[in-house]
Design brief:
single chain, alpha/beta, five-stranded mixed beta sheet, 23 helices, 10 strands, elongated, phosphoprotein, Stage 0 sporulation protein A homolog, transcription regulation
Length: about 525
């Protein structure tokens, strides 16, 4: 029988683990217990146990040092850590030292603990069979990655060789209800920052164990780490049911656990179902085809591959966009300036850059329809572009468009409180900015003295008459710089500046660049690339 040593400073936890497990079922018995790391090390040297269950935070010697000392002996002892969620930063080092599993103290059920012990028992059995040979014990996750994932990706080894290797580790893939599911952690970088795990080793270790425990309860699948935030789940069944019901339950439980424990959501790319083992690679390729459109997949969504998946995805995007925008925007504007261009683009190609341009163009139109009359449109455009460029998916872009459009709508409502004379003056400026305009001309037009007009203009709009006029002209010139081949002096005159030098100085004052520098820096155009 395999000898087990428990190292845990909390007596209730030690007693609970020892009493709740039927150790004989795993061909194991508890040889001793320790309340601190130093005692555990002494007992380890005395008993040479096959399995050590150790806490991380213990007096005199912590669990990390104990694991390091055990590994320094060269012994293949199986080590399982007793972990709390707040131990993750310390568990990183334990993972590097080769622990084979973990038990989440106080929250794991007896069945879940037994599943961890069953995996350890299988590894110990494998080590026992290969003693005296040069073969080193291999972690099942490594086998899945190097054999199954390699076959799915490169077709090397062959399917028969892959299945044969898995059978050596007591893993059988049944030929019914075969489905592959690619899981992608949506807020992966957030998770790395939270646990200070830049290489993702701790996250990988934790997620593989959690997902494997969930799959073990259903007895219907395998999980293998693909790369970074991606994990591949392979579902199979002994009998043919042609039902996704069991799979849906597993995915739902994974979502719940990741949300509750890590505050992240995964989204899934699900293949078709087949009863033919030889189509495994085809199923995996279906997942990858969906995954190529990650930018357009909603966080926390389950996306199924079929013959019409592109049409379905397109309709999902358009429906969500329509419902979101029509709640506060004019449906005519939404349809003409966003939905129609989006539909045309998405039917042709799912391009994030092209969609960015559509949102940008629509915002420019909305800005001039609803936007500020205070000459600050350049700042609004700049802020919107910065926010749009930082978006990681379509739904973030949609959220940013909504947020910025609502700010413009709020400002538009506030402008409604402007006096009749100022509104009349703004309309005149916007219609005549391209020619010479004087303060006397505008004040006379609205029936006010120049001094009084200047005073209420500044009070209501927060800027002077000349400042507003210059900003508005610069905005117009920016649009011409972006979308025409006109010379700088031609644009200056077209926007109401009688002197090219004054235009250049004014442009740099408001934008920080010369007109030519701005033209060169324009990377967003109205063309859909």
């Amino acid at each position: 029988m395999y000898k087990v040593l428990i190292a845990e400073d909390e007596m209730l936890v030690r007693t609970g683990i020892r009493a709740s497990i039927d150790w004989e079922k795993f061909n194991m018995y508890v040889v001793d217990e320790a309340a601190d790391g130093q005692t555990a090390w002494e007992l380890y040297r005395k008993h040479q146990p096959d399995l050590v269950l150790t806490d991380i935070k213990m007096p005199f010697m912590d669990g990390i040092e104990l694991i390091r000392k055990i590994r320094d002996t060269g012994s293949p002892t199986e080590i399982i850590i007793l972990s709390c969620l707040d131990d993750f930063s310390l568990a990183r080092e334990a993972i590097r030292l080769g622990v084979s599993g973990y038990i989440l103290k106080l929250t794991m059920t007896t069945e879940e603990m037994e599943e961890v012990l069953e995996n350890a028992c299988q590894t110990l059995d494998k080590v026992t069979k290969t003693k005296g040979s040069s073969m080193a014990p291999v972690n099942l996750y490594d086998v899945l990655e190097h054999s199954l994932l390699s076959h799915l990706t490169y077709n090397v080894p062959s399917l028969s060789e892959c299945l044969s290797t898995l059978r050596e580790y007591s893993v059988t893939i049944h030929p019914h209800d075969l489905v592959t599911a690619l899981m992608v952690v949506d807020q992966y970088e957030q998770l790395q920052d939270l646990y200070q795990d830049s290489h993702g080793q701790l996250i990988q270790f934790s997620l593989l164990n959690i997902i494997n425990e969930i799959l073990a309860k259903s007895g219907s699948g395998l999980v293998v780490h693909v790369s970074g935030s991606r994990y591949l789940l392979l579902f199979h069944n002994e009998k043919e049911t042609r039902s996704f019901h069991l799979i849906s339950g597993v995915l739902s439980e994974i979502m719940t656990v990741l949300k509750n424990y890590f505050n992240v959501t995964p989204h899934f790319c699900i293949s078709e179902m087949t009863q033919d083992l030889s189509r495994l690679r085809v199923l995996y390729q279906q997942c990858l085809l969906l995954d190529e459109q990650e930018f357009f997949l909603f966080p926390g969504s389950v996306n199924h591959y079929d013959s019409s998946w592109k049409t379905s995805l397109c309709q999902t995007l358009l429906t969500r966009t329509r419902h979101t925008l029509n709640a506060f925007m004019d449906p005519g504007f939404t349809s003409g300036f966003l939905l129609q261009p989006l539909e045309e683009q998405l039917k042709k190609e799912f391009s994030s850059k092209a969609v960015l341009n559509i949102f940008y163009d629509s915002y420019i139109v909305y800005l001039h329809n609803q936007g500020p009359g205070d000459g600050d449109s350049y700042l609004w455009v700049r802020d919107f572009l910065q926010a749009l460029s930082a978006c990681k998916n379509y739904y973030e872009m949609l959220e940013q468009f909504v947020a910025h459009a609502q700010k413009l709508e709020k400002l538009s409502r506030e402008r409604m409180s402007c006096s009749r004379e100022i509104l009349q003056a703004l309309q005149f400026l916007q219609n005549n900015y391209h020619r010479q305009i004087t303060l006397n001309e505008v004040s006379g037009l609205v029936g006010l003295s120049p001094n009084y007009f200047s005073s209420i203009f500044k009070k209501e709009l927060g800027t002077s008459f000349l400042e507003y006029l210059n900003r508005y002209r610069i905005e117009k010139s920016m649009k011409l710089l972006q979308n025409t081949s006109m010379k700088s002096y031609e644009i200056a005159y077209a926007c109401g500046f009688s002197d090219e030098g004054y235009y250049g100085k004014t442009f740099k004052k408001f934008t920080g660049k010369t007109p030519n520098e701005y033209k060169k820096s324009c990377v967003f155009t109205t063309s859909n690339e």
